[in-house]
Description:
This protein has 163 residues and is α+β, with helices and mostly antiparallel strands. The protein has eight helices and seven strands; from the N terminus they run H-H-E-E-H-H-E-E-E-E-H-H-H-E-H. It has helices at residues 3-7, 12-15, 46-55, 60-67, 102-105, 111-114, 117-126, 140-156, and strands spanning 24-25, 43-44, 68-71, 74-77, 89-90, 93-94, 137-138.
Amino acid sequence: xxAISQRNNSVEDKxxxxxxRKGLRFHCTGCGGCCGGAPGYVFLGLQDLKRxxxxxxxxxKTFLERYxxxxxxxxxxxxxxxTYDCIFLKNKSCSVYxxxxxxxxxxxxxxxxxxxxxxxQEAKERCEGIDHPEAPLVPIETIExxxxxxxxxxxxxxxTSIS
Length: 163
Ligand code: SF4
């Protein structure tokens, strides 16, 4: 195993893989493309659920009944009926932006998208903000912080009861 392979084996290098040490270019244009139009899931951690329920001034159970669905053993937002758009996408904008789920908040710094250049190129096909001409260079420290938050949120999805 070479030095780079060894480094990529650690958790640290999942959130800051060697190849992005100089940063990556990204700027959200607000196109709304990542919020609908195609099948997908916005998975919710417990903290996401609590934040969104509070944002709507609803008890957690009521929020779940109105806006969430079970996918395997996790919770995910429902789509707008008859579409693949997020239930909270309105006029191409996020209507819960200040309380948006961590999965949305940390996009595009998901570990499966930054793990190697090929994955980043594939993500670019789905998001016009990646390598956008006006996109600033995002430093590795910022990417690492967001990727770590994304990972922690995945762990936060592993709960079994709602109180
Ligand atoms: S697809 Fe990319 S550029 Fe468009 S809203 Fe989503 S993050 Fe922003």
